[in-house]
Specification:
Helix content is about 20%, strand content about 25%. The chain has one helix and eight strands. Strands 4-3-2-1-5 form a five-stranded antiparallel sheet, with no helix packed on it. The chain has a three-stranded antiparallel sheet with strand order 6-7-8, with no helix packed on it. This is Tf2-1-like SH3-like domain-containing protein. InterPro entries: SH3_Tf2-1 (IPR056924).
Length: about 180
């Protein structure tokens, strides 16, 4: 199936036309083969995607998280930073607007934001949104840390190491269950 190189001087006019059509025929055959293989690969990849693809739909009254812009340096919804949250919420769906848009019930702080969002900006809220505690009542600082306050010493123990004794106490902390108690030196 290789192409032979022949000097043009040695060829007659009819032989040149025959050789040229042969080269074109071989090239067309290869192009057809490549096209068929690309179609086959495309079909295989499409079937993989179609198996995993699911149409997203939300019901009115359900709760969803709202995606914050992932673009660097863009301040959206009062959130910014490298390790900032990707989603905020949860927010309740008030109504469906068209096939792929939903209107959300946003808090007063987000009043300047338009209430209708594309389905790609939403993520299903799993669990009961009523049980999510607000950060204000928990005494959480701006950097999302809080102060642990000991309530009671539950137990004491002294461990013997090679040549010294180490005393430790089991401390029950505020806003923790008994199972959350820790041993402290």
């Amino acid at each position: 199936m290789g192409i032979e190189f022949v000097l043009l001087e040695d060829l007659q006019q009819s032989e040149f036309a025959l050789l040229g059509s042969e080269v074109v025929y071989e090239a067309m055959k290869k192009v057809r083969l490549i096209r068929d293989r690309l179609k086959m690969a495309h079909s295989r990849q499409k079937s993989y995607v179609d198996n995993r693809k699911r149409d997203l739909e939300f019901e009115v009254g359900k709760w969803v998280y709202l995606k914050i812009s992932p673009m660097k340096g863009v301040l959206r919804f009062g959130k910014k930073g490298k390790l900032g949250p990707r989603y905020i919420g949860p927010y309740e769906i008030l109504k469906r607007v068209g096939k792929v848009a939903y209107e959300l019930k946003l808090p007063i702080e987000l009043a300047p934001v338009y209430l209708v969002f594309h389905i790609s900006m939403l993520k299903k809220c799993i669990g009961d949104p009523v049980s999510i505690l607000p950060l204000e009542g928990l005494g959480v600082n701006e950097n999302l840390s809080y102060e642990e306050v000991p309530i009671e010493i539950i137990d004491r123990q002294v461990k013997m190491l090679r040549n010294k004794e180490v005393a430790s106490v089991k401390v029950l902390w505020k806003k923790h269950l008994v199972e959350g108690a820790t041993w402290e030196a």
